[in-house]
Write a structure and sequence with these properties.
The protein has 1 helix and 6 strands; from the N terminus they run αββββββ. By secondary structure, the chain is mainly beta.
């Protein structure tokens, strides 16, 4: 992936809330793939890229935030629904 494109702060707040509440998410990615994973934490690397750390059956994975199109909590009692993260 080329230059990192920061996501809007309001969208970052949803990711942090998902991590705080350990939500299982349906995650839609820029490459057209999807995954189901539990939100663990967010990270900022030295190069200023931001990442979502998730856990699923295969173990932990990091997803660059600008590669995520949308997240949808799978828990019906979640405090938010589908959120668009980065533009396509």
């Amino acid at each position: 992936m080329s230059d990192y494109k920061m996501i809007p702060c309001a969208h970052y707040d949803y990711l942090e809330l998902a991590c705080l509440r350990s939500y299982w998410l349906k995650i839609e990615l820029q490459d057209g793939s999807q995954c189901q994973a539990r939100a663990i934490t967010t990270q900022t690397h030295a190069d200023k890229t931001e990442w979502l750390v998730v856990e699923h059956q295969a173990g932990q994975q990091t997803l660059r935030l600008d590669s995520i199109i949308a997240i949808t909590p799978t828990d019906p009692a979640a405090s938010f629904g589908r959120v668009m993260i980065a533009s396509q």
